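Design request, tokens follow.
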């Protein structure tokens, strides 16, 4: 529990509206009495460490003489809460067996384990070390080893010989009595430099200072300290005892010219650099992702429907939000920054989704082409204007759409030659105007005119366009943003050409043929049919192999 000074400062923090201090947790287990193994005499010395940790404000998950099921349940609670804790400690004392690769803390119902069954009767200490490794500079594992005549199978040795300290984790091993005394007097003392370990105790890993408990930085000689404002000194001591960023910041705010201001700023800088977000950011930076790799990540996010708002290789707020959402969806630490393994997992998921979508699109395209061909046989091949217009209404970008349009032009030219001069002149004015209103006026003025079929078709096309005008405007704007370079436009046309959609010359210029090819592509893949290279369109084109 918090001591008096911590309570006083916590109250001050609450009044100032700062965040509540994060919780520290510990797993402490002493197994002394076993069903078939020899008794360990000093295992319950862990009680003293439990008391020390609780006094320091830790939430302690504590157990004595734990069976396998009890042990796993207790450790699982620790593992579940560890990611949200600031500082983590594991203290184990009892019977331990090791291989060259790992060590196991034996449950009280362990029989005579061998190298194949050891995992069934003990708790993997290497697994616990992996959990602690997520809190570098803020984690301790202490193991009390007790001499005994355990019944072990071949390839197993007593004590934690197979256990090594992960980077940033302090590992303390040795006889239980000495290890517990060392923890109580040195390692678990806030603000204290780690002292020398007892002769029979081995300290490895993070050994210079035990980072989570904010070591006191030397500030001045005793005579100089005597002149420091007593309120300043008392507040600094309380802040140092708590040891969190929030507490340190209250000191900086209250004593901006204080005697310990440099200490506070350095400690804040160190703790900020050690937050999960900072570590994640630094980890991604070490991957040295180039522009192309970042584009691929954005494409993969978009393929999985986590929109990065652009495939430009620049990781701005929108891309970070997309990464964060993807990490959350798969149950990973959601930081918005990627690890190497996450990039691989993202690529695999996107590739699988792309393959699934493209297989479905190709199947749908074959079905559409069959329907297109069949309908052309029923309409276009009859050669009448009405049948040709029926085909174009259903398949405006169909396989035979250009043939149909050319034949319709022939019919229009024939009617034009027969039309009266006044109507022909008026029709030319309507076409020059090109508005839906102009076509409606023509139909009212010449209800049986030579150009009624053309006017009706044009009006229907304009009305359909008007219903999609906002969609097309938005798509045009998005195309300018995501496909503004010749490089990307050439890529789009090349992919469309590879699919046999006939976009015309692959020159980076989106003409009528390019637009028609994009509409065909979008229609088959059930994307908004705009004829513009939107982000969705480009992502789906990237999926084409």
């Amino acid at each position: 529990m918090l001591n008096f000074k911590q309570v006083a400062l916590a109250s001050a923090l609450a009044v100032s509206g700062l965040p509540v201090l994060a919780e520290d947790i510990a797993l402490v287990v002493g197994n002394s009495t076993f069903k078939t193994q020899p008794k360990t005499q000093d295992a319950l010395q862990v009680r003293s460490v439990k008391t020390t940790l609780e006094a320091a404000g830790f939430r302690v998950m504590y157990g004595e003489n734990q069976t396998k099921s009890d042990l796993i349940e207790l450790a699982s609670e620790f593992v579940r809460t560890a990611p949200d804790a600031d500082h983590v400690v594991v203290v184990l004392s009892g019977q331990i067996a090791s291989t060259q690769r790992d060590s196991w803390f034996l449950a009280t119902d362990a029989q005579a384990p061998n190298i194949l069954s050891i995992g069934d009767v003990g708790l993997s200490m290497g697994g616990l070390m992996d959990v602690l490794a997520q809190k570098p500079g803020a984690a301790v594992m202490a193991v009390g080893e007790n001499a005994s005549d355990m019944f072990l199978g071949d390839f197993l040795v007593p004590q934690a010989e197979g256990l090594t300290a992960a980077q940033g984790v302090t590992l303390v091993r040795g006889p239980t009595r000495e290890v517990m005394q060392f923890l109580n007097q040195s390692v678990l003392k806030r603000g204290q430099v780690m002292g020398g370990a007892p002769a029979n105790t081995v300290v490895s890993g993070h050994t210079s200072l035990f980072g989570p408990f904010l070591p006191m930085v030397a500030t001045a000689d005793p005579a100089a300290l005597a002149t420091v404002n007593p309120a300043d000194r008392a507040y600094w001591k309380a802040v140092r005892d708590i040891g969190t960023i929030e507490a340190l910041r209250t000191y900086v705010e209250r004593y901006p010219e204080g005697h310990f201001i440099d200490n506070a700023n350095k400690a804040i800088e160190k703790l900020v650099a050690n937050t999960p977000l900072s570590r994640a950011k630094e980890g991604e930076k070490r991957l040295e992702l180039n522009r192309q790799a970042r584009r691929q990540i954005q494409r993969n996010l978009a393929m999985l429907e986590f929109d990065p708002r652009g495939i430009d290789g620049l990781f701005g707020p929108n891309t970070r939000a997309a990464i964060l959402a993807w990490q959350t969806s798969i149950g990973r630490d959601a930081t918005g920054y990627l690890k190497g393994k996450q990039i691989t997992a993202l690529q695999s998921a996107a590739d699988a989704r792309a393959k699934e979508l493209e297989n479905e699109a190709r199947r749908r395209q074959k079905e559409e082409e069959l329907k297109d061909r069949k309908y052309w046989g029923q309409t276009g091949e009859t050669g009448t204007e009405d049948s040709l217009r029926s085909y174009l209404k259903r398949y405006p970008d169909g396989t035979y759409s250009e043939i149909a349009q050319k034949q319709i032009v022939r019919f229009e030219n024939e009617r034009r030659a027969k039309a009266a001069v006044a109507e022909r002149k008026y029709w030319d004015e309507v076409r020059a105007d090109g508005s839906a209103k102009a076509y409606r006026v023509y139909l009212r003025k010449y209800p049986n005119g030579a150009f009624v079929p053309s006017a009706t078709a044009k009006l229907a096309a304009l009305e359909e366009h008007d219903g999609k005008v906002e969609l097309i405007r938005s798509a045009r704007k998005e195309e300018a943003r995501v496909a503004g370079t010749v490089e990307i436009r050439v890529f789009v046309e090349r992919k469309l050409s590879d699919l046999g959609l006939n976009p015309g010359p692959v020159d980076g210029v989106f003409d009528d043929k390019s637009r028609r090819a994009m509409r065909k592509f979008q229609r088959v893949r059930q994307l908004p049919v705009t004829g513009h290279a939107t982000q969705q369109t480009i992502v789906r084109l990237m999926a084409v192999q």
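Comment from the thread starter after seeing the answer: thanks! The radius of gyration is 37 Å.
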